[in-house]
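Whiteboard transcription, Tuesday session. T.W. wrote the structure tokens on the left side:
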């Protein structure tokens, strides 16, 4: 397995940085800093300008912006080259997540840690000592249970335990924490929203009864996958049912409405009576959701730039019919899909994130990254101004094609 990246390779597209002059990678390049390292996970976020890489030896490398300490290096100095994060050097890292300016790192049996911006308590570290501050040294998440994965939004986070229990922390202004509360209060005639610094468990999941139009609680729901948008959330249950909640502008929750949801609601477009129609993959973009059902049909809803789409319910992407989709990475202004032996992107290109060369400014249709066509990709990730692809080099043909790519020396 090797790493391929496209897009700006130091500041990852933030315009208010003080960067040195860096030439964008207009087409996918091999990351030389990780030469000889076997990477198993690539992590960034749809609002993030930083990234993490987890190796087969459970080591954590970081790269990118760090103005809030989101890389956990103990400073706010950005990393222009993928580097091991010293705090986790002697820990077994199994997963990580990137919010806008914060991060969560999960270890095996040694706790979970968070760092970066904590204005609304999104790190989930509890108490008041770190709330409202930037945390540059990783601090333990206030959960004793072993976590499986985490997800980060603009100013909130989700935490999923190995047992399938779901917790949330941070801002709940739009209901994105799923706890049936916005945290709204009045202080000196001003409307404010409280910060939730200690993770709270999301106990209840609901569906809308189509006859009575009332919300009905679904018992004993366990979760296997989570994702965050800017102010909305998505989760897939162990039964492959998709739930969404939070801010619902442009119908990004997929419930055929634009009203915010304070509790997880099942997306009833995917019929639970038909296992083929249940959800295998679901990822939030900044303004919507992409999903793949169990027979491989790709759906999108909300505001996702697919042919300028704004739709409050799932619609299939016809261009992806018949493809074997491995992963999807919805971003803020661009989106990436890896399927069969192709990497496909669309949206706005400012720093090379579409991987289609310098002459492509934007694409309203899904199109292949020609320079990596034929290389099977296992995973993809899309952040601000950058794209990450994780390639499978197990075949001789893949190795040959990878050797023909440019190398990013930064």
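and on the right, the sequence the group agreed on:
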């Amino acid at each position: 397995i090797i790493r391929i990246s496209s897009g700006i390779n130091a500041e990852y597209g933030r315009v208010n940085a003080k960067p040195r002059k860096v030439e964008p990678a207009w087409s996918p390049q091999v990351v030389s800093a990780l030469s000889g390292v076997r990477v198993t996970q690539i992590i960034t976020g749809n609002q993030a300008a930083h990234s993490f890489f987890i190796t087969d030896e459970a080591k954590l490398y970081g790269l990118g912006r760090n103005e809030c300490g989101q890389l956990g290096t103990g400073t706010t100095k950005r990393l222009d080259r993928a580097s091991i994060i010293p705090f986790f050097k002697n820990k077994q890292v199994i997963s990580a997540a990137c919010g806008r300016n914060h991060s969560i790192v999960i270890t095996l049996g040694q706790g979970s840690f968070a760092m970066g911006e904590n204005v609304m308590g999104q790190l989930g570290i509890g108490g008041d000592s770190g709330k409202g501050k930037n945390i540059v040294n990783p601090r333990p998440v206030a959960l004793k249970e072993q976590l499986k994965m985490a997800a980060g939004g603009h100013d909130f986070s989700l935490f999923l335990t190995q047992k399938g229990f779901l917790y949330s922390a941070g801002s709940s202004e739009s209901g994105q924490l799923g706890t049936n509360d916005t945290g709204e209060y009045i202080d000196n005639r001003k409307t404010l929203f409280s910060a939730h610094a200690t993770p709270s468990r999301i106990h209840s999941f609901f569906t809308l009864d189509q006859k009575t139009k009332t919300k009905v609680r679904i018992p004993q729901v366990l979760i296997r996958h989570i994702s965050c948008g800017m102010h909305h959330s998505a989760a897939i249950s162990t039964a492959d049912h998709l739930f969404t909640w939070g801010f619902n502008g442009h119908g990004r929750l997929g419930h055929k409405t634009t009203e915010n949801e304070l509790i997880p609601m099942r997306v009833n477009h995917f019929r639970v009576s038909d296992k083929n129609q249940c959800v295998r993959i679901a990822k939030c973009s900044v303004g919507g959701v992409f999903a793949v059902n169990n027979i491989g049909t790709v759906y999108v809803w909300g505001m996702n730039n697919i042919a300028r789409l704004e739709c409050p319910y799932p619609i299939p992407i016809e261009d992806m019919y018949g493809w074997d989709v491995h992963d999807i990475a919805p971003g803020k202004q661009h989106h990436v899909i890896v399927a069969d032996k192709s990497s496909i992107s669309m949206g706005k290109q400012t720093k090379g994130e579409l991987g289609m060369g310098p002459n492509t400014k934007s694409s309203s249709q899904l199109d292949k990254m020609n320079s990596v066509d034929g290389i099977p990709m296992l995973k993809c990730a899309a952040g601000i101004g950058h794209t990450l692809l994780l390639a499978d080099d197990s075949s001789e043909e893949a190795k040959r094609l990878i050797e023909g790519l440019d190398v990013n020396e930064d």
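Someone added at the bottom: Residues 9-17 have pLDDT under 50 and may be disordered.
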